[in-house]
Amino acid sequence: MDFSVKTGELATLETACLVLGVSEPRTLSSAAQAVDHASGGQLSKQLETGDLDGDAGRMQLLYQLPGVAAERVLLVNSGKSGELDRRTFDKVLKAVFARSAELGLTELTSTLAEAPVAKMTPYQRQRAIAQAGAHSSYRYEHTKAKKPNAKPPLTTLNLWVASDAERAAAEQAATHAAALAAGANLARELANLPGNICTPSYLAEQARALAEGGTPSFTVEVLDEAAMGELGMGALLSVARGSREPAHLIVMKHNGGSPGEAPVVLVGKGLTFDAGGISIKPAADMDEMKYDMCGGAAVIGAMQAVRNLKLPLNVIGVVPTSENLPDGAANKPGDIVTTLSGQTVEILNTDAEGRLILCDALTYCERFEPAVLIDMATLTGACVVALGRHPSALFANDDQLAEALATAGEAAGDRLWRMPLWKDYDSQLESNFADMANIGGREGGAITAAAFLAKFVGNYSQTVPWAHLDIAGTAWVSGKEKGATGRPVPLLVEYLLRRAGLAS
Ligand code: BES
Ligand code: MN
Ligand code: ZN
Question: Which CATH code is given to the segment(s) 2-161?
């Protein structure tokens, strides 16, 4: 997707579609006013029909306006004057790009950064526009022999600014959005690929490809099962034993900060297929468990964005990746494994495998002495029951980190909701035969999963600020529109941009 920042006379701008905002009640944005003027009041006349009145996101498409060079003008209701918030703005953008996709437009021009969105800087508005445009341009085609979707995707998005003074912010927004959206779209592609293509080895290859052309500022290392065995990753390897696909531990390093600076470490669950193991899942919708690597895909996508943006930070991405299948060597309920941390775990349910691969990955990260540690995982169905599909769940042992992540999520349109990380839940994980069980019963399932993980970050020499994101409800959508969302890549990149002092 190409972005270009445009300024100057709107009426003479050659574009397939000029998008103009109209706020309630029937108020033309200043860009729309200029076009109205050039067309001899055509827009004002259209408004009088009342067809645009109502909800934000309503649209009216106009062709061949006199005195206007654009092939089409798309008027969009941008909500009540002075009340446009980020949520509504996202809704408006979604509507605009959905219409554009329907029309098969490959190019369009947005003037929507003029919309008065509360608490959003011009940079943030342009970012949101560019991000929504790039998100809409993704098509899944990898395994389709026939390409039924004849309409081409958007390839060029022009961001219009009223004056040269606004150009720099818009250009920076476009650069950031391009990298962010490419990272999110990479995560979506990896996630949408079926389990027989996107295996742990495939994920490792894709991660390795990020370091192609080899610079010391971005390196990728992949640990195989032998290396993990030598380290003592008994929990991770126990999950992989039930599968013919070998497990891997992918380690990506972006060295953009000063050499001694403590890194931000991202860890993502990379279960390329989760059948549940011996505690096998019901057949209905089991295909969706190809999405159980969305945490890992998000880490790979975010690392690509970080690399492309050359962020002046040290960032490490770690993806433990495996399948979870039932076979003669698979974990059995009651089996006890020794984790890399030395703690033992009784596996009462083999379907609670995410925490088993994550716990060893988290312990492994100790060696990086992280400034902050953030893991993300499609960890529990219980999380979807608790929060539905709008926010990802946030658990954190540090209020400052929780606050920074929540703020970044808000700003990136990729929201989080905080859940408790309290010792009170630990008793649910007690085992008669090991240091802990891998499940904590029906109650508070997302929370006990987080409490389990917490036992593997507590033994850092100095407890590291840690956050766990349960993305089970947000990483993909089910039903007719089934597909990966790319979340939480927007949130991660936003957090890192802010940490680098670049997102304003
Ligand atoms: N990957 C699943 C969680 C999941 C299920 C995410 C459905 C999204 C939709 C995870 O490995 C799992 O199976 N968790 C179990 C835990 C339980 C056995 C304690 C679950 O949620 O049922
Ligand atoms: Mn499972
Ligand atoms: Zn799983």
Answer: 3.40.220.10
User: Which residue in the block uniquely carries the two structure tokens 């490809």?
Assistant: 209
Q: Which amino acid, 36?
A: D
Distance from the CA of 435 to the center of ligand 1, in angstroms?
22
472 CB within 6 A, ligand 1: yes
Q: What CATH code would you report for 184-499?
A: 3.40.630.10
3-state secondary structure of 21: strand
Question: How much distance in Å is there from the Cα of 192 to the middle of ligand 2?
Answer: 18
pLDDT tens-place string over residues 64-107: 999 999 999 999 999 988 778 889 999 999 999 999 999 999 99
Q: What is the dihedral angle through the alpha carbons of 122, 124, 129, 131, rounded to the nearest 10 degrees?
A: 150
Q: Which of 167, 281, 482, 498 is catalytic?
A: 281
What tokens appear for 395 in the block? 């658990």
Q: Is the CB of 353 under 6 A from ligand 1?
A: yes
Tell me whether residue 281 is one of the annotated catalytic residues.
Answer: yes
Which of the listed residues 292, 345, 380 should we mutate to test ligand 1's pocket, taking the one with most ligand atoms within 8 A of CB? 380
378 lines ligand 1 (CB under 6 A): yes
Distance CA 396, CA 14 (A): 50
Note the pLDDT tens digit of each residue in 449-494: 999 999 999 865 568 999 999 999 999 999 999 999 999 999 999 9
Give me the residue spans of the domains in the chain.
2-161, 184-499
- Measured CA to CA, the distance from residue 358 to residue 420 in angstroms comes to 19
